[in-house]
Specification:
Helix content is about 35%, strand content about 25%. The protein has eleven helices and 17 strands. Strands 1, 6, 7, 8, 9, 10 and 11 form a seven-stranded antiparallel β-sheet that branches. The protein has a four-stranded antiparallel β-sheet with strand order 2-5-3-4, with helices on one face. The chain has a four-stranded parallel β-sheet with strand order 13-15-16-17, with helices on both faces. β16, α10 and β17 form a beta-alpha-beta unit. It is elongated, with a radius of gyration of 25 Å. About 40% of the residues are buried. About 0% of the residues have low confidence.
C-alpha cells in the first residue's frame, strides 16, 4: 500500500506521548487577521516568558531554507509570524518550546521499513547539514527488539529512546521516520524536527492512533494554478504554473523544461530571485487557444501584483516542434485583451525564443509590442537564452 505523510505534530505525539509539549493550530488562508479562536487557544497553552519555534506543518521539505520556520518567538508574536505564511496558502502550524543547543550537537536519525526489518540510519554529526557529511552516516538493521541494545551502545543513542521509537514505529504502521536534527542532552533525546510516512491502509488497524485527519494538507492552490491544472488535463501538451510571489516583479511565460530552469536560475544568480512571481512552462506543442488560455492566467497574476515596476518575460530554448508562430499568436491574443491595463501599469515585455517558424513568430510579436507600446526587447536564437530575463531585471531594478 502507498505511504502517506502525517503531520509532524501527530508523529511526535505518537513517539513521545504527553511528554511532547508542542501545540498544533489551524488557520484558514482566507481569514485575516489571524486572531481567531485557534491562536487564542494556542496562546493560552503557552508560557508568556518562554521562547518558541513556530513552523508550517504541511509536509514541506527544507522548511528552514524556505523561510517557513521561525526561531525564538514569544507567544504574543505568533500571529505576526504566521500571517505571511497564511497569505501563501498555508493553514497548519505548530509551536514548540525552543531548545538551546549548538550546531555540533545536532545528529541525524531515520528508520525505514525494509525487507529485512527496520533499517536505521544515524550520524552523530551533520544534523540539518547531513548532505555535507554523507560519510558520517552509519547503517543498522533492526530485526527484533533484542538488536537494540547493541545498536544503542555503538551509536550512543539512549537505549530506552530507541526502544520507545521502534515500538511506536511498529505499533502505528510507520513506513519511514526521519528525525533531523536529533539532539541528545544529559542522556535525553530531543526531536527538533520529524517527518513520518505511514502505510495508507493502516488507519483500519491503528484505531485511536492516527486517522485521515492527520495526513498532511498541502498548500492551498492559487486559483490560477488550479485553472492551469484543469486546462492541462485536456491536452497532450505540457502546461504548468506555480505562483511563487503574487506581488513579484518578474512574470514568466517560459517554454521548455530545461530552458525554463536556466532562465529562472539566471534571475536567482543576478540577485533577483525574490522578484520572481511565478514559474512554469508551456511546451509539447500547445494550440493557439491553449497558449492563449495559459498566457491569460499569467497576465492576470501580473496585473494583480502590487510591485512598482513589472516585466513579462517570454522566453525559452530552441524548440524542436513547438511552433513559435502559433504559440506567439496565442500569447498576442492574451496581450491584446489586456493591453490597456498593461500600458497603464507601465509593463514591458521581453522576449527570447527559437524554434519552428521562429522568424515569423518573433516578427509578429515585435510588431505587436511596438504598436501596443509594450516593447522591452525581442531576441531570437542568435542571442543567449538568458538575454530576455537579463533585460527584464535591468528594467525592473531601475
Amino acid at each position: 500500500m502507498p505511504r502517506v505523510k502525517i503531520t509532524e505534530y501527530k508523529a511526535k505525539r505518537l513517539l513521545l506521548g504527553d511528554a511532547y509539549q508542542g501545540v498544533s493550530f489551524n488557520l484558514s488562508p482566507n481569514s485575516s487577521p489571524p486572531t481567531g479562536r485557534g491562536l487564542g487557544r494556542v496562546r493560552s497553552a503557552l508560557s508568556e516568558g518562554e521562547r518558541y519555534v513556530v513552523k508550517v506543518d504541511q509536509g514541506i521539505k527544507k522548511r528552514f531554507k524556505q523561510g517557513l520556520v521561525k526561531i525564538g518567538v514569544s507567544a504574543n508574536e505568533i500571529a505576526a509570524v504566521v500571517e505571511p505564511w497564511k497569505e501563501k496558502g498555508f493553514s497548519q502550524f505548530i509551536a514548540e518550546p525552543l531548545l538551546d543547543h549548538s550546531a555540533d550537537e545536532e545528529q541525524y536519525f531515520s528508520l525505514e521499513r525494509v525487507r529485512d526489518g527496520i533499517r536505521m540510519l544515524h550520524a552523530a554529526e551533520g544534523g540539518v547539514d547531513i548532505e555535507a557529511h554523507p560519510e558520517a552516516v552509519q547503517t543498522y538493521v533492526i530485526t527484533e527488539l533484542a538488536d537494540i541494545a547493541a545498536i544503542a551502545k555503538k551509536s550512543k543513542i539512549p537505549e530506552q529512546f530507541l526502544v520507545t521509537v521502534v515500538e511506536a514505529f511498529e505499533k502505528n504502521m510507520f513506513g519511514f521516520l526521519e528525525i533531523n536534527p536529533l539532539v541528545i542532552k544529559n542522556g535525553e533525546a530531543h526531536l527538533l524536527d520529524a517527518a513520518a510516512l505511514v502505510d495508507s491502509s493502516g488507519e483500519f488497524f491503528v484505531r485511536g492512533s492516527w486517522t485521515a485527519k492527520d495526513i498532511v494538507k498541502t498548500k492551498a492552490k492559487h486559483e490560477s494554478e488550479g485553472r492551469v491544472e484543469e486546462l492541462a488535463k485536456t491536452t497532450p501538451a505540457s502546461l504548468k504554473l506555480s505562483v511563487i510571489n503574487p506581488d513579484g516583479a518578474l512574470f514568466f511565460l517560459l517554454s521548455g523544461g530545461g530552458g525554463s530552469i536556466v532562465i529562472a536560475d539566471e534571475a536567482e544568480l543576478e540577485g533577483a530571485g525574490k522578484l520572481i512571481a511565478n514559474y512554469g512552462e508551456y511546451s509539447g506543442g500547445p494550440t493557439r487557444e491553449e497558449t492563449y488560455l495559459y498566457a491569460r492566467e499569467v497576465l492576470s497574476l501580473l496585473l494583480s501584483s502590487t510591485a512598482p515596476k513589472k516585466a513579462l518575460v517570454i522566453a525559452g530554448g530552441v524548440a524542436n516542434f513547438t511552433d513559435v508562430k502559433k504559440t506567439f499568436a496565442g500569447i498576442i491574443d492574451a496581450l491584446t485583451e489586456k493591453s490597456d491595463e498593461l500600458r497603464k501599469q507601465g509593463v514591458k515585455v521581453f522576449v527570447r525564443r527559437g524554434g519552428p517558424n521562429e522568424k515569423e513568430g518573433l516578427s509578429a510579436m515585435k510588431s505587436f509590442l511596438d504598436e501596443a507600446k509594450l516593447l522591452g526587447s525581442v531576441h531570437g536564437s542568435d542571442e543567449v537564452i538568458t538575454k530576455a530575463v537579463e533585460d527584464a531585471i535591468a528594467f525592473v531594478k531601475v
